[in-house]
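Input (structure):
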């Protein structure tokens, strides 16, 4: 039987960031990935470090703020270990909001200010000024494909054992050690962590606390285009309906739908056409752009749109999941907090809003926002 201090199921950005943090503190870590590392929601993400997005639940503020503080060292560590650069592609976002949204953000954050029409014509020529206010937010973005290349290599360089094409068949956590079974091996570990994203509720991964917020997939379709002619975009453009994220070399990623389609990842032409139309209405140069790539990913979401970070109902078993649209942003702080818990330390901030056994508050919107619970016959092919 193989052994490890910690076995992590799932080699997305959450699982690998946690593995990197644990390994840096001297723990032996094995990460099991059913397919390829960083091949699901991490690969499909937009990459905005949108800590101040007005669409974020307010309970995310402290976690998001800490993650932003950690990001420079996080990227530096990845680049040092992997030898691969993960550059920031943009350093500011233009957020379209109504009057209430402008007041809310401007009153709480000194780094946000309203842009004049003259400034908007300079920063994003042709921008449709249909919103009452456009705010400038100091906020970076990166291309997740850069992370997909660098983070697995960094984890391996740090001593993490990364096993691809290795699904979790069962987890026995009734006694110590926890025994994790794969198709080819059994691994005895002190701790087991479920970081499998939208597939977190697979029966093979052990029991989550009774009554915990369900983690369900929220499909997002996206597309990347290349601008033609002299058109350039240097800032993220974001409204409640659509976002445009510059990648460099004239490329712009446009997203994203939020659909309750189970584990279906079909790319639908009508959905991509709707995204392109919304983007062109916001910023007309998109109408002449060349489509380079379209795809769909599965965000792991909970009913209150907050992640689950903490212990499950089984001995020495943990979960980090349900990050919805903010997995890239929240990875460094999530990794630090769960690493601290596993190592017996007190986290740097209050994890109560993200407790897996938390009692859900009254929610003044339809409870099926993230869709119905997954059916028992759902696919686990991408675990």
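Output (sequence):
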């Amino acid at each position: 039987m193989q052994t490890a201090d910690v076995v992590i199921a799932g080699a997305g950005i959450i699982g690998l960031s946690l593995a990197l943090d644990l390994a840096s503190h001297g723990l032996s870590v094995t990460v099991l990935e059913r397919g390829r590392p960083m091949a699901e929601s991490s690969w499909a993400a937009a990459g905005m470090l949108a800590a101040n997005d007005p669409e974020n639940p307010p309970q995310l503020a402290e976690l998001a703020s800490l993650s932003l503080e950690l990001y420079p060292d996080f990227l530096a560590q990845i680049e040092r270990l992997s030898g691969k650069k993960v550059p920031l592609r943009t350093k500011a976002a233009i957020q379209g909001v109504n009057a209430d949204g402008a007041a809310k953000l401007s009153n709480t954050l000194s780094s946000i200010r309203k842009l004049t029409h003259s400034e908007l014509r300079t920063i994003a020529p042709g921008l449709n000024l249909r919103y009452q206010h456009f705010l400038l937010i100091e906020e970076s973005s990166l291309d997740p494909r850069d992370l997909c290349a660098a983070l697995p290599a960094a984890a391996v360089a740090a001593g993490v054992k990364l096993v691809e094409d290795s699904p979790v068949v069962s987890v026995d956590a009734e006694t110590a050690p926890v025994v994790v079974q794969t198709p080819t091996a059994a691994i005895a570990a002190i701790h087991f962590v479920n970081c499998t994203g939208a597939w977190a509720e697979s029966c093979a991964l052990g029991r989550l606390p009774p009554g915990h917020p369900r983690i369900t997939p929220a499909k997002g379709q996206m597309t990347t285009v290349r601008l033609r002619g002299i058109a350039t975009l240097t800032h993220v453009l974001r409204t409640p309906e659509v976002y445009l994220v510059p990648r460099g070399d004239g490329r712009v990623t446009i997203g994203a739908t939020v659909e309750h389609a189970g584990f279906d990842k079909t790319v639908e032409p009508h959905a991509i056409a709707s995204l392109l139309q919304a983007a062109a209405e916001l910023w007309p140069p998109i109408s002449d752009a060349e489509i380079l790539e379209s795809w769909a990913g599965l965000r792991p979401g909970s009913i209150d749109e907050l992640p689950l970070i903490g212990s499950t109902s089984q001995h020495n078993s943990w979960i980090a999941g349900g990050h919805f649209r903010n997995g890239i942003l929240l990875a460094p702080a999530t990794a630090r907090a769960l690493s601290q818990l596993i190592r017996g330390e007190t986290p740097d901030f209050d994890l109560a809003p993200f407790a897996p056994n938390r009692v859900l508050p009254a929610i003044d919107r339809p409870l099926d926002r993230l869709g119905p619970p997954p059916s028992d016959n759902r696919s686990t092919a991408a675990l």
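Notes: The mean pLDDT is 90. The first strand starts at residue 2 and ends at 9.
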